[in-house]
Specification:
The chain has 2 domains: about 5-195, 2-Layer Sandwich (Fructose-1,6-Bisphosphatase, Chain A, domain 1); about 205-335, D-Maltodextrin-Binding Protein, domain 2, CATH 3.40.190. It is about 30% helix and about 25% strand. The chain has helices at about 5-10, 20-40, 65-80, 220-230, 245-255, 275-285, 315-335, and strands at about 50-55, 60-65, 85-90, 95, 110-115, 125-135, 160-165, 170-175, 180-185, 190-195, 205, 235-240, 255-260, 290, 310-315. The protein is globular. The structure holds 2,5-anhydro-1,6-di-O-phosphono-D-mannitol and magnesium ion. 2,5-anhydro-1,6-di-O-phosphono-D-mannitol binds next to strand 5 and helix 5.
Length: about 325
């Protein structure tokens, strides 16, 4: 059974950039993931559950574990000396790593949601980390600028997530398929458990917070009714955890669609383009699926600011295409 490190070395010819950098990036990610996993597993016994009392840049209540995970990732990336800057869902501005001493050395930029699915932290339901890596655009001789972080998703060189669930799994892509590794907690090692993950042909599950139904656009409402219709392979099964990584991971394995649309209250939806949608969209496409904002490809959206939100639809190619058709019909009807 391959460890994550062995798998990277075995497949080194498929990664365009240096294998050593990739190993270092993963060394940081694994280190932080293990530390967070440990805290998540004993959260009820420590002081780590509940809110910090602080409202984050998203205007949302920051949980203690959100804050802990953010700090762990920053420290971990600092210690491996491979990244020059990080933007995190938990921080208003991007963070320089190493500042001047690293100028001319490190070219990797990380965008991260350190702990996604905050509403599930205190209730023992799966939560996750989502990460995304780019190459800096600016010259290595000058300080980083915001443009280094505002890159289209199609420029990602690595993305992935870690689920802290019934087991802890790390899933990633570098543009050569999607591979999953399960943590064996007894030895602290990630082993290859899910090689070449791919959306199955079967259309089975739809995942959406139907509590918001009345606020959805007509095209989304019509699609929900279509999912529930008794016809062909329908009705589909509804499954919604409220943790993007958990919902996405299940749908990728069993066949399904995840939808977080715009609503009457949130015209841009809820999810963040850079920390959540782009990394999951890269994985989706690599697994043979489709990721869209309802009209266009997520990976082609030009980011304008760090904490930008977008409606998000991802999953089995045919299901996402079908939903896009429903949205198009409504757009044309409203012209
Ligand atoms: P978070 O980053 O504050 O945790 O929010 C993101 C999460 C996603 O994981 C999940 O799919 C969605 O928010 C659930 O939102 P809602 O509770 O509105 O359905
Ligand atoms: Mg999040």
């Amino acid at each position: 059974m391959y460890t994550l490190g062995e798998f990277i070395i075995e497949n080194r010819d498929r990664f365009t950039y240096s294998t050593e950098s990739l190993l270092r990036l993963f060394s940081s990610i694994k280190l932080a993931a293990k530390a967070i996993n440990k805290e998540v597993n004993k959260a009820g016994l420590t002081e780590k559950i509940g809110s910090t009392g602080i409202t984050n840049v998203q205007g949302e209540n920051q949980q203690k574990l959100d804050n802990f995970a953010h700090k762990v990732f920053i420290e971990s990336f600092k210690s491996r000396n491979v990244v020059c800057g990080i933007a995190s869902e938990e921080s208003k501005d991007f963070i320089l790593i190493g500042e001047n001493e690293n100028i001319g050395q490190n070219k990797y930029i990380v965008l991260i949601d350190p702990l996604d699915g905050s509403s599930n932290i205190d209730v023992n339901v799966s939560i996750g980390t989502i990460f995304s890596v780019y190459i800096r655009k600016s010259s290595m001789q000058i300080d980083l600028s915001i443009e280094d972080f505002l890159q289209k998703g199609n420029q990602q060189i690595l993305s992935g997530y870690i689920i802290y669930g019934s087991s802890t799994i790390l899933v990633y892509t570098t543009g050569n398929g999607v591979h999953g590794f399960t943590l064996d907690p007894s030895v602290g090692t990630f082993y290859l458990s899910h090689p070449n993950l791919h959306f199955p042909k079967i259309e089975k599950i739809y995942s959406i917070n139907e509590g918001n139904y009345e606020r959805f656009p007509k095209g989304i409402k019509n699609f929900i009714k279509y999912c529930q219709e008794k016809k062909e392979s329908r009705p589909y099964t509804a499954r919604y955890i409220g943790s993007l990584v958990g919902d996405f991971h299940r749908n990728m394995i069993q066949g399904g669609i995840y939808i977080y649309p715009q609503t009457a209250h949130s015209p841009n939806g809820k999810l963040r383009l850079l920390y959540e949608c782009n990394p999951i969209a890269f994985l989706t496409e690599q697994a043979g699926g489709k990721a869209s904002d309802g009209k266009k490809r997520i990976l082609d959206i030009e980011p304008l600011y760090l904490h930008q939100r977008t409606p998000f639809i991802c999953g089995s190619f045919s299901m996402v295409s079908k939903l896009e058709e429903f949205i198009k019909i409504e757009t044309n009807n409203n012209k």
